[in-house]
Amino acid sequence: MKQAIVAAARVAAAGFSGIAAVVLIGSGSAQAAPQDCVVSRDLFGASATCQPDGGGSNYVLKVECFGLYANGPFPLYGVGPYTSLSYPFTPDGQRISTGCTGMGPGVVAVATNASVIYYG
């Protein structure tokens, strides 16, 4: 029994070490696909500011996350990569944000990448 507890603790420590490595390697700013957009990423999410394009285009901020996420009705969870999307927005120079946390009780994840997607 004691060996099983020690093995489980080692697996948990390795998992947290892996997430910490993703945090250290993955923090910083990201590149945006559409022109005139600036994307800033932090540990748990990202924000984008896109200048008006005069065409009424619609964009979405896409944040790639890694960690614990809701995988169905509570209390089902999964661990791994997932994507978080902002609400569609028309660029007007205002900042739009979305994050990896707040997507259910107990969700803990870090942002690994972020970009702005044009969809029409």
From TrEMBL:
Q: Give the signal sequence positions.
A: 1-32
Record keywords: Signal
Source organism, top-level taxon? Bacteria
Q: What is this protein called?
A: Uncharacterized protein
